[in-house]
Structure to design on (579 residues):
């Protein structure tokens, strides 16, 4: 299936990636090429086949509900672009 | 010292022919002198390496050091390393100093292994040529106008240029085996779940697996002994004892059943590459193996299924890079949406963005069943091909990649052509099986890789089959021109 610039605008919004007007057609073409490759899957009969999520069909391992990790806020915030009083700073969201 | 394999270096350290400090300094000197040509390292950590080497020398002197104690290696820059930049070759993480170690990094630290630095790679491991790195392409030591393969191109070039005796790497669709083939090395991708993924920056979580690049299968076995572990921190890690991977290396191959899939020798395979793989089959016959023609009928669907599943998982995994908590943030965002969108637009390269967009499309409302669910069904068909084959044979043999190393820029304009570079390796990841590549010949003075695929958790068997080939041939002993 081919995509056009209006699809790209929607995808850009979903993926939160800015795509400039002047590259939208180029991006649409390259995404369409990849979709043409994967469209080969549509011709395969997969009736009755169970989708495979894990190669060994493993199930989620559970653990006891115990605290195992100490709080390391200062350490993790030391690599943040902007913090204040232990909070991450972003542009104002609410007026 | 750099001519020695890891196995030889462990002996040299114990004989006191040299200390870990001398060995580490020797490699650091080589990196400083030669890596301006290859660009195989993103970050070199000389002070840390020498401190680790000094500690290793103390353990060696005490007499009860683990096997790899004092051996310097390089880590692919996808593995988190405390206090050291972990960039994943992306502008997004150019300023990211990891606050913790990946489990495999911890495993090697506990074993006294020394880290020389972090190797170059395709950005977020997305590529087959190392050309998508934010830090520039890596040159293939065998032909510096050619790519080293990818995504673990830096790890491969570093080992091939003798700038490390071994390196860690990761493989989502061929990212260990294809660079091993293009650089004339031994590269192993273990069974999915054999090695912890904790602290390995996620690309496609159901496919990613860490492994190693070395010069010999024996070295790979030594490195695997510390790489593999059960890790409660990785929910997909399999709780299973880790064998001594060196124990079976010398087993004879008499009676070994090798399956050769006819689908791996079709259109697109370089005829000279095919001839070298055929010659390798003859070597195995001489070693007592029997050769069986087999069929993996869904092989042609592996690349299409992969390019739904891998982008879908990458679009989810890479949503964490938001410009808020760590990593790149754009200048002067006008609001929160602008912060997200411009940080990601400026922080990610074109190939990463392409895959995020494809994944977002495949997972978007109305398309999920047609793409993601369909691909997961085809994935089971691909796995079943292998399950059926392993009722008849012990290992599967074929080429690793369709042709030897290609020139820079020759596939960058056509993403789909680049994707087909992994046509023989991707199915193994989809099935979760272990795979390995060893050198088996040269075409135009560039190495050719032979791929061996094993049943689940048959890494020791694969390493045995590879080691026996290397006892009968000398392809793995050849070094790139100019590498003394």
């Amino acid at each position: 299936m081919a995509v056009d610039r209006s699809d790209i605008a929607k995808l850009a919004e979903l993926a939160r990636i800015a795509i400039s007007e002047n590259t939208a057609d180029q991006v649409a073409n390259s995404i369409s090429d990849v979709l043409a490759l994967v469209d080969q899957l549509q011709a395969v009969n997969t009736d009755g086949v169970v989708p495979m999520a894990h190669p060994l069909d493993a199930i989620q391992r559970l653990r006891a509900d115990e605290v195992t990790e100490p709080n390391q806020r200062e350490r993790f915030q030391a690599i943040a672009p902007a913090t204040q009083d232990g909070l991450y700073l972003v542009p104002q969201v609410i007026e | 010292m750099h001519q020695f394999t890891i196995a030889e270096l462990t002996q040299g350290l114990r004989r006191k022919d040299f200390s870990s400090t001398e060995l580490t300094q020797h490699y650091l000197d080589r990196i400083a002198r030669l890596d301006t040509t290859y660009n195989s390292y993103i970050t070199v950590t000389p002070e840390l390496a020498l401190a680790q080497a000094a500690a290793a020398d103390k353990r060696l002197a005490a007499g009860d050091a683990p096997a790899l104690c004092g051996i310097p290696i390089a880590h692919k820059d996808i593995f988190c390393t405390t206090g050291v930049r972990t960039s994943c070759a992306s502008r997004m993480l150019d300023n990211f100093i990891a606050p913790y170690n990946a489990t495999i990094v911890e495993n090697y630290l506990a074993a006294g292994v020394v880290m020389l630095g972090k190797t170059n790679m395709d950005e977020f491991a997305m590529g087959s040529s190392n050309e998508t790195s934010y830090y520039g392409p890596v040159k293939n030591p065998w032909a510096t106008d050619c790519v080293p393969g990818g995504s673990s191109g830096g790890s491969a070039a570093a080992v091939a240029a003798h700038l490390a005796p071994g390196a860690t790497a990761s493989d989502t669709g061929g990212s260990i085996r294809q660079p091993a083939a293009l650089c004339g090395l031994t590269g192993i991708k273990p069974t999915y779940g054999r090695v912890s993924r904790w602290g390995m920056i996620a690309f496609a979580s159901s496919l990613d697996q860490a492994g190693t690049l070395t010069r010999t299968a024996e070295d790979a076995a030594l490195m695997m002994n510390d790489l593999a572990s059960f890790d409660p921190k990785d929910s997909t890690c399999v709780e299973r004892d880790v064998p001594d991977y060196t124990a079976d290396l010398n087993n004879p191959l008499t009676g070994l059943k090798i399956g050769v899939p006819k689908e791996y020798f079709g259109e697109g395979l370089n005829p000279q590459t095919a001839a070298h793989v055929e010659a390798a089959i003859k070597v195995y016959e001489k070693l007592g193996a029997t050769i069986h023609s087999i069929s993996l009928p869904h092989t042609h669907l592996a690349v299409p299924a992969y390019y739904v599943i891998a982008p879908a998982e990458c679009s989810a995994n890479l949503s964490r890079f938001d410009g808020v908590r760590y990593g790149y943030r754009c200048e002067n965002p006008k609001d929160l949406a602008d912060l997200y969108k411009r940080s990601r637009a400026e922080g990610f390269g074109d190939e990463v963005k392409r895959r995020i967009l494809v994944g977002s499309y495949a997972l978007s409302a109305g398309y999920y069943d047609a793409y993601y669910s369909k691909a997961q069904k085809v994935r089971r068909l691909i796995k079943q091909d292998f399950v059926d084959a392993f009722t008849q044979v012990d290992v599967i043999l074929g080429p690793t990649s369709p042709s030897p190393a290609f020139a820079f820029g020759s596939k960058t304009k056509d993403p789909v052509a680049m994707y087909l570079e992994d046509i023989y390796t991707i199915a193994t990841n989809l099935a979760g099986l272990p795979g390995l590549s060893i050198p088996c010949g040269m075409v135009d003075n560039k190495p050719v890789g032979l791929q061996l695929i094993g049943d689940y958790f048959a890494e020791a068997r694969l390493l045995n089959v590879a080691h026996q080939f290397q006892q009968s041939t000398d392809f793995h002993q050849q070094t790139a021109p100019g590498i003394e």
Summary: The radius of gyration of chain A is 22 Å. Chain A touches chain B through 52 residues (CB under 8 Å). Residues 71 and 77 of chain A are 12 Å apart (CA to CA). The mean pLDDT of chain A is 93.
